[in-house]
Specification:
alpha+beta; 2 domains; five-stranded antiparallel sheet; SH3 type barrels
């Protein structure tokens, strides 16, 4: 299926969602969008071809390969599941649970800083 054919398909049923790029991707056609690892994209339309129509943080639009992206909701759900599993298997109580929550918050902040650093690096390159 060509990009033009995919454009004729109905947009995703949830009206768009946010993703982050797992790795860089350089557009190979004029209707494609460059991806930068760690940057956030809004997916406007999906297609069975595996190409999604997305907008980057600068307002640029284009087709991107879906296997280079991960939904932010999926990342959050994985983190929540790991956190819940840790709580139920550790048998920790009281202050130790609060300490774990603080550690998790520190890890999330560090991850966000890493994403921002990657975005800045990518913007310097492009």
């Amino acid at each position: 299926m060509t990009h033009a054919e995919a454009a004729q398909l109905p947009s995703s049923k949830d009206g768009g969602f946010h993703c982050t790029a797992l790795t860089d991707y350089s557009a190979a056609a004029t209707d494609e969008l460059d991806l930068c690892a760690g940057s956030i994209y809004t997916v406007i339309q999906t297609s069975p071809s595996g190409w999604w129509y997305a907008e980057d943080e600068d307002g640029q639009y284009g087709w991107v390969p879906s296997n280079y992206l991960v939904r932010l909701e999926d990342v959050t759900e994985e983190e929540d599941e790991k956190k819940e599993k840790t709580k139920t298997t550790s048998g920790q109580q009281g202050g130790e649970e609060e300490e774990d929550e603080e550690n998790e918050e520190r890890k999330k902040k560090a991850k966000r800083k890493s994403i921002v650093a990657k975005q800045n690096k990518c913007k310097d390159v492009h």
